[in-house]
Amino acid sequence: MMPMVSASIDTVALRHNLSVVRDHAPGTRVMAVVKANAYGHGLGPVATALGEADAFAVARLDEGLLLRAAGILKPIVLLEGVFDREQLEVAVAAGFELVVHVPEQIELLRTLAPGARCTVWLKLDSGMNRLGFKGRAFALAWAALQDLAPVRLPVGLFTHFGNADARDPGDTLAQLQCFQEATGLLGGERCLANSAGLLNFPAARGDWVRPGLLLYGVSPLPDSTGADLGLRAVMTLQSRVIAVKDVAAGERVGYGGTWTATRRTRLAVAAVGYGDGYPRSVGAGAPVLVGGARAPLAGRVSMDMIGIDVTDAKIAPRLGDPVVLWGPQLPVEEIARWAGTVPYELLCGISQRVAVELR
Questions:
Q1: For the purposes of burial, counting CB atoms within 10 Å of the CB of 306, is it exposed (0-12), middle (13-18) or buried (19 or more)?
Q2: Which of 74, 134, 216, 255 does the annotation list as catalytic?
Q3: What average pLDDT does the chain have?
């Protein structure tokens, strides 16, 4: 039975995009970021398809456990670390690598049973002011970790950029300088660059890069698409036409009647809406593909349906015809601009009733 809404995942495109990342950052290892259900693409299947990555990064313990259950044996890094004794014991037993960013996590490590061992990344807050140690607190945390028997040495060194996609490089250059000053004399592998960082700042590539959005074929840079960077879109979000009708000039369409037909209009209705993760904020006029050709939305996105003005369609749509919301021929970056958001939110927002299909 064909689903009403599906997200088709191109595993060949995933592997291609990993190769593009390696081309941009030769000589570094790749920590593929697959948190948030692999940005909506399916955690286990994506990690399996990206088997040539050197490691995987997730936000939380439960995501790491799902990867292990899917048969992923590569190193898995918990970007938020762990927060109680039970989580720590489970993480160590699963062989997860832990990012340490608050003093309480160091104290937790002291409670590990004799003989337990774990790999740790120490996070510097280099200016984003989210997670990590700053200034002297970073030096003290590093020193404390040197004396903990469970911690494998040398400790890895970690930071995160808050503005690497900006046209003005000033903030990221300041973060880079902060990182270099804090870690310059320390041993240990370095992991700094997210997707935008590895594209824009060669000095940030270090020993490891941490791509997320790039792997899914989407550009992290403003006013560009993945295709501009040689990437291939991995996800195609698709629905179907469930009604075709005529609307007279002057009639309004959708909730609130915010769109009025200025001429006799042929309207197609597709079975997709914000209940599937296609945002209500996508405005009238935003493009979808009907029969492979662009056609604009008419009226507001509702929970289960959208209206599409197909008056100018070269081929009259029929019930069951495919409607593409984003994909290789309709970049998700473009739809994100129509929605006033970022591609990350659209991809991660795919709901549980969307059928995810690998190809």
A1: buried
A2: 255
A3: 96
